[in-house]
């Protein structure tokens, strides 16, 4: 029995070793990413910790490990003192590898790379940062012994064109071996590379490059699903002696197609066979899909016209620079999918291989880019790097376009080489240029469309638009842009700039998070992927299920009109849920009830209805929510609809009755009113609050109301009694006091303020009233309204109606500390608010619809073009009926579309019936 067991063990080991001998082996000399590294010896020639041998984790950027100097692209580093990194690593090579072909592979090094094995150059110096390259080191290795790898890395290139394309850009410039390094161990006779073309028709073609096949052989192939089921029949082709490549083909009937919505992939297994013996086996994943550009029409994937909801993405993480890992790739793609994006542009260089793997598996269209920010590679260098780019990324079904440089960084000599290198003949575009049937120009004003986007002849697809800065851009303006793009048949969508803030941890500045001022604070998410308010605006605007605006009024039958904005998915593959909520004021617990929603069969681009199956007593609730889920059960968005309007909620919250009477006294300049332990002092000349207090102390609300962008001409105040209530009001005069203010003081200690006023001009940024309140007193706010994020006039989408709470913070979007949601700013659709302070709380209720409340003023933003323009009223707290938009890095608010323009009020003739009316209740009693 022992001999049989030993024989079986030996047989299994032999079979495993045989299988390994037939397959490519990958032996890492470095780690696999930023989350798994290997220490190498290291010497930096300049900057931090230079001039001494020590160790460094590989892969990494050396600045993040405390070496060298930090450089942002606009900070032109002089040639004097430019850094080099010297690396050494000793590794063992088993004797069993002696009869193998061994390549030394670098996934990415910044920037020029000189490699030695055991003191001998492995090959010519490699110039260019973002491209995988390899050396055949078979004859340089010592087998059964240790080997010394030496790598000299120059942060800047000796090639001026490489520096122009890669080093002089609007992004951080790093140095180092920043992507993995490994040995590729192959049989001597092997499959060197395979390039696949698998269009939606089901035809399959592969160009198989061979290495050292000196005798007659054959390639055998079989297609599989990713779960292992065979697809079709075996196929292959004969290989003549010394033949270096062979093309094999087959056909699959009715394959499942790869799209961003249905990322179905297959696997091909290729074997090099000689005299019945398998010498080498290679596996490659792919997807069946066709990309077609129809000039003066659009982009078609698998015969379906698509619009790209895209974003630009740098490979970047604060603690590791451009060194990433697969977990971070999964995180980023999932965040993009959560925002309902379907595309990503690789700006301004090709990404890690694992990022493309994740785009393949989760479904994102990828625009893969040859580097060139505003400069380009020379033709010999670009030809070599283009070959490396296409060879490396050719089989990813997610990659559907190539981009030859960005914003003038185009080498036109390289354009025809993409088709020569790419078996799939993917389309090629230039970012920010009219080229190849596309107008990809960046950052055009909304109204620029009148001249070109709407009336031109090219397919319009800006590869950058709505350049974010801090809280501006991205969500601010996107609804105007997207609706125009969606309706324009020549629009193929576009790509926001950009995905994440590129804040880097400065090891030379006590670990601060540095975005180089406003240069790198451009993201929809923070450096650590914190979600800003625009994240949720984009999520709603780009939801592939659009629910049209619906007022829930008398006669509502539970139906909502929807539009299917998917390209490949029927709505019956999605699902919906519904919820009714009865809100609660103060500490009372809310109640809720779920209901079902019927999903119809609606093909892409069709409109129809969904029906909420509501209970009979649904009108007793305050808010209705509907959530849509994609076929994978992930939330697309949750919409909220008010059932109870502010007037109804106010009637249940505001208490006017009291046991006592309102007491009033006056001096030459003041009214003093008392009720239920509350005392309110008003100025007789202008009606503004001078002081508020109750039995527990002072409520520091003063100096209001003050009209913003209106004439503060409240005059000639009088007092009168109406039942138990006391009314203090100004006198209307068409000429001198046409704006009026009325205070009503109730026995309960509640107070009503009603302002009737005329906006200051036809074109007005801000409409409403302000008060003073010491910011240092604020602790938190709880409110019923839209939340939890602040809004701008041109960024209203993304929030839900509900009851929200957040603690005070002094956050400035995009700047540390990154605390979201921000406390300060405008908040929409107020019902009630409770401002908790270090002293007395302030409670505010309104019966008015569409009222904004403003909490203090965020830190002013300074940008070199003065475009962001965060416009706020005077004072500290405001109740507004019109607020301002916010600009982007490249545009002022008014050029981002109609929503960013000022408010327009026509035909006010200073008549009371034409005035705007703003009503707010205050509870000054300190009692709910």
Automatic annotation (TrEMBL):
Q: Which reaction does it catalyse?
A: Hydrolysis of terminal non-reducing beta-D-galactose residues in beta-D-galactosides
Q: How does it assemble?
A: Monomer.
> Biological process (GO) annotations?
lactose catabolic process
Tell me where in this chain the Glycoside hydrolase family 2 immunoglobulin-like beta-sandwich domain is found.
Answer: 190-289
**What name appears for this protein in its UniProt entry?**
beta-galactosidase
User: Can you give the residue ranges of the Glycosyl hydrolases family 2 sugar binding domain?
Assistant: 54-185
Gene Ontology CC: beta-galactosidase complex
């Amino acid at each position: 029995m022992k001999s049989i067991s030993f024989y079986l063990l030996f047989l299994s080991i032999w079979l495993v070793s045989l299988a390994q001998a037939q397959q490519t082996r990958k032996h890492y000399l470095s780690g696999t990413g930023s989350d798994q590294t290997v220490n190498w010896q290291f010497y930096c020639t300049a900057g931090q910790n230079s001039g001494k041998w020590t160790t460094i984790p590989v892969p990494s950027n050396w600045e993040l490990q405390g070496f060298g100097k930090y450089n942002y692209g606009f900070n032109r580093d002089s040639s004097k003192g430019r850094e080099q990194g010297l690396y050494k690593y000793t590794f063992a090579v088993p004797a069993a590898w002696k009869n193998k072909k061994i390549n030394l592979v670098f996934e990415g090094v910044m920037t020029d790379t000189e490699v030695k094995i055991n003191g001998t150059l492995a090959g010519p110096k490699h110039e260019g940062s973002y491209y995988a390259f390899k050396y055949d080191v078979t004859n340089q290795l010592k087998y059964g012994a240790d080997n010394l790898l030496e790598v000299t890395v120059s942060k800047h290139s000796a090639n001026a064109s490489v520096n122009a394309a890669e080093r002089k850009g609007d992004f951080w410039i790093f140095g180092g071996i920043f992507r993995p390094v490994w040995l590729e161990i192959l049989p001597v006779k092997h499959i060197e590379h395979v390039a696949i073309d698998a269009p939606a028709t089901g035809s399959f073609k592969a160009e198989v490059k061979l290495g050292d096949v000196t005798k007659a052989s054959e390639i055998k192939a079989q297609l599989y699903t990713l779960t292992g089921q065979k697809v079709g029949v075996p196929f292959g082709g004969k290989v003549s002696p010394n033949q270096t490549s062979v093309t094999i083909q087959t056909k699959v009937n009715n394959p499942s197609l790869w799209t961003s919505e249905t990322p179905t992939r297959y696997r091909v297994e290729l074997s090099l066979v000689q005299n019945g013996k398998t010498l080498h086996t290679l596996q490659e994943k792919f997807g069946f899909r066709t990309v077609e550009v129809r000039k003066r029409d659009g982009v078609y994937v698998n015969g379906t016209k698509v619009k790209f909801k895209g974003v630009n993405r740098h490979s970047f993480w604060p603690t590791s620079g451009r060194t990433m890992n697969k977990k971070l790739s999964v995180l980023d793609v999932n965040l993009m999918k959560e925002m309902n994006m379907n595309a990503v542009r690789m700006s301004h260089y090709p990404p890690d291989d694992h990022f493309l793997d994740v785009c393949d598996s989760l479904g994102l269209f990828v625009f893969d880019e040859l580097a060139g920010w505003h400069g380009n590679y020379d033709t010999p260098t670009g030809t070599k790097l283009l070959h490396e780019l296409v060879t490396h990324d050719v089989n990813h079904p997610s990659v559907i376009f190539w981009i030859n440089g960005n914003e003038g960084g185009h080498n036109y000599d390289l354009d025809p080489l993409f088709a020569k290198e790419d078996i799939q003949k993917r389309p090629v575009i230039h970012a920010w240029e009219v080229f190849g049937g596309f107008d990809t120009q960046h950052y055009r004003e909304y109204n620029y469309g009148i001249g070109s986007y709407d009336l031109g002849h090219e397919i319009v697809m800006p590869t950058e638009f709505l350049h974010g800065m801090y809280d501006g851009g991205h969500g601010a303006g996107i609804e105007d842009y997207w609706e125009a793009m969606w309706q324009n048949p020549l629009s193929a969508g576009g790509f926001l700039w950009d995905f994440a803030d590129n804040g880097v941890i400065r090891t030379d500045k006590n670990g601060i998070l540095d975005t180089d001022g406003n240069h790198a604070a451009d993201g929809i998410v923070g450096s650590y992927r914190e979600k800003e308010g625009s994240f949720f605006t984009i999520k709603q605007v780009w939801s592939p299920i659009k629910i049209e605006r619906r007022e829930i009024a008398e006669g509502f039958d539970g139906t909502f009109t929807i539009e299917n904005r998917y390209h490949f998915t029927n709505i019956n593959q999605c699902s919906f849920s519904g919820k009714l909520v009865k809100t609660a004021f103060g500490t009372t617990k809310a109640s809720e009830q779920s209901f079902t929603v019927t999903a119809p069969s609606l093909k892409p681009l069709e409109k129809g209805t969904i029906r909420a199956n509501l209970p009979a007593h649904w009108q007793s609730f305050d808010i209705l929510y509907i959530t849509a889920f994609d076929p994978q059960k992930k939330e697309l968005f949750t919409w909220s609809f008010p059932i109870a309007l502010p007037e109804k909620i106010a009637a249940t919250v505001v208490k006017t009755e009291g046991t006592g009477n309102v007491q009033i006294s006056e001096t030459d300049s003041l009214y003093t009113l008392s009720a239920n332990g509350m005392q309110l002092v008003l100025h007789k000349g202008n009606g503004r609050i001078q002081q508020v207090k109750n039995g527990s102390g002072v409520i520091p609300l003063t100096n209001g109301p003050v009209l913003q962008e209106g004439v503060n001409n409240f005059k000639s105040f009088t007092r009168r009694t109406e039942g138990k209530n006391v009314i203090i009001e100004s006198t209307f005069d068409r000429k001198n006091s046409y704006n009026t203010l009325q205070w009503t003081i109730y026995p309960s200690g509640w107070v009503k303020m009603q302002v009737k006023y005329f906006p200051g001009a036809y074109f007005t940024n801000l409409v409403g009233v302000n008060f003073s309140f010491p910011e240092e007193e604020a602790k938190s706010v709880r409110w019923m309204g839209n939340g939890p994020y602040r809004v701008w006039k041109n960024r209203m989408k993304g929030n839900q109606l509900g009851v929200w709470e957040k603690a005070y913070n002094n956050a400035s979007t995009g700047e540390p500390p990154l605390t979201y949601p921000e406390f300060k700013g405008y908040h929409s659709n107020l019902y009630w608010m409770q401002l908790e302070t270090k002293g007395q709380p302030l409670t505010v209720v309104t019966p008015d619809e569409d009222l904004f409340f403003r909490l203090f003023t965020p830190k002013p933003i300074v940008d070199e073009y003065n475009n962001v323009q965060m416009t706020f009223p005077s004072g500290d707290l405001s109740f507004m009926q019109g607020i301002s938009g916010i600009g982007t890095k490249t545009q002022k608010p008014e050029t981002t579309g109609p929503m960013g323009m000022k408010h327009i009020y026509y035909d006010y003739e200073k008549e009371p019936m034409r005035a705007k009316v703003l009503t707010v209740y205050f509870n000054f009693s300190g009692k709910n």
